[in-house]
Amino acid sequence: MREIPFTLDEHPSFSLPEVGLAVLGHPISHSISPILHNAALGVLSQEEPTFSNWMYERLDVQPKDLRKALDQLAQAGFIGLNLTIPHKVEVLDFLGELDHEASVMGAVNTLIWREDHWVGYNTDGYGLEMALKKVLKCNFQHAKVLILGAGGAARAAAAQAILSNALLVHIHNRSSNNLNNLLNLLHREFDSERVEGSTSESFREDDFWGEDWIVINATSLGLKPGDPSPLFLPCAGFGRNSVFYDMIYNPPQTPFLAEADADGFKNANGLSMLVYQAAKALAIWTGREISAEAMFEAANSHFGD
Questions:
Q1: What is the pLDDT of residue 192?
Q2: In total, how many domains does the chain have?
Q3: 54 and 135 both lie in a single domain
Q4: CA within 20 to 30 Å of 10's CA: 90, 174, 175, 217, which one?
Q5: Average pLDDT value over all residues in the chain
Q6: How far apart are CA 39 and CA 33, in angstroms?
Q7: What CATH number does the domain containing 75 carry?
Q8: Are residues 64 and 194 in the same domain?
């Protein structure tokens, strides 16, 4: 991985058997996606040497240049792209085809070039569900799911939970406007009575006290030093079989997770979600089974764990 992300003025070009892959965002220098993907490609190339010609990089692309970037990268031999902030929703206007789950989630994080157009997928929901299963040994089916936040990450989490037959999905957010927008969208999409929400002024403590929940932080609280926990209730107030998952992976322990850990609850950060969504994306591009283990090893080595 190049230390400085590429721009549209200087990105590489590829011709078969070379294949280009990349993650697009703004900013993008923090992304470890190339570390994960190139590690897994290294494993693939041991059995199929052609994958040694596949390369994954970072491209800093401003929102105004997204359409130009998609056209330019297709011509330059890129067949797979990941999208992160701020491109996951805006890209919907530039796609020739959209996977069902991406349509339900209203956002795209993975593109594949097919003949003459980009096809959009969303692997975030899959990544989250796999992280819960593999790391916290739980799943959405028949569970009560509490999602903190009402942005794009929360929408993906809520949609995946509903698709996986959660008993109840409760969304808690500081802003009633954003909360209501998300609730209305989910109710329209799923016509589901299993979705409800609250703000700090409207939640009922008795609905949560002593109950077992899968609690997911889908806010940005915890990214910066001094951030408070997004929880509206002490961890100790939840049922003893509750689990706590933070989509943030750096820092590895947020105040949200530190509180859960101190109270003896199973908890995990977002690195596992990042790995499993990346493995799903690479599987879409390659048509091969992907080694999540290689991705975990590369990530842990990067963070010095």
A1: 79
A2: 2
A3: no
A4: 90
A5: 94
A6: 10
A7: 3.40.50.10860
A8: no
Please confirm, yes or no, whether 88 is among the known catalytic residues.
yes
Residues of the chain with pLDDT under 50: none
Of 88, 144, 266, 280, catalytic: 88
